[in-house]
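MOLECULE: protein
FOLLOWS: sequence and fold
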Amino acid sequence: QVRLVETGGGLVQPGGSLTLSCAASGFTSKSPTIAWFRQIPGKEREGVAVISGTDGSTYYGDSVKGRFTISKDNAENIVNLQMNDLKPDDTAVYYCALDYMAYPSLLEPLYDNWGQGTQVTVSS
């Protein structure tokens, strides 16, 4: 059974940085695609960043391009999301998700495996 555990959330001032980690376990294939999504109460989940399990290619949502970086540590089955120049609009619960696909995608319905989420609050 796939298990995803997110860590690293917290309170940060605008302009600050934070790194989220997603520890994945229980998957049988070597090459899952892992993505980060975020959700504000009352709104739909928004795709933030994704990294391909096959070739390591990455893709970002428009609102975070140039500020966020997704990376993975294959040895530890951990995917990190480095978030820089954080803005109050980045405040949300951040989730990691895992599934298998030919091309990396930020379409939420394509993912069947989700973590519990970690809260990120950007405020002065």
Notes: Residues 3 and 124 are 34 Å apart (CA to CA). The chain is about 0% helix and 50% strand.
